[in-house]
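User: Let's play a game. I give you a shape written as tokens, and you guess the letters that built it. Ready? Here's round one.
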């Protein structure tokens, strides 16, 4: 193939390649925007919505081992409580988020080390009470 034909073939492919690149970028932007729009908003309303969903979810689970003042329930799986608190953490407003994060870490520790129930319960009680009180003051669930 001559240089002229090769050059012409390359020029014809460039617009197609550019269109494909633009299409890929547009799809990536749409996917990223959709992902962020599905995340709970950091607001009192968003937090209260997630709280109501998680409280209802936990109420269906059995157990009586691990207490949660926040959810006013006992469960046999501390990991389930940690999961619910993690979901709350994603929507928690800035004024309560540090306590929610701390409370989540306590339940994660209980999930990994069930023998630490007494020490973790004592350490977590003030934070659990704080988050519970804040939730009662801000959510009408």
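Assistant: Ready! My guess for every position:
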């Amino acid at each position: 193939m001559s240089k002229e034909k090769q050059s012409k073939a390359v020029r014809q492919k460039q617009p197609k390649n550019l269109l494909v690149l633009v299409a890929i970028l547009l799809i990536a932007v749409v996917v990223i925007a959709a992902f962020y729009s599905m995340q709970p908003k950091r607001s009192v309303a968003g937090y209260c919505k997630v709280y109501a969903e998680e409280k209802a979810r936990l109420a269906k689970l059995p157990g009586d081992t691990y207490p949660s003042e926040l959810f006013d329930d006992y469960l046999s799986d501390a990991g389930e409580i940690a999961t619910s608190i993690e979901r709350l953490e994603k929507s928690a407003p800035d004024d309560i988020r540090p306590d929610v994060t701390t409370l989540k870490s306590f339940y994660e520790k209980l999930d990994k080390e069930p023998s630490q129930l007494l020490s973790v319960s004592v350490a977590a009680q003030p934070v659990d009470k704080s988050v519970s009180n804040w939730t009662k003051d801000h959510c009408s669930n």
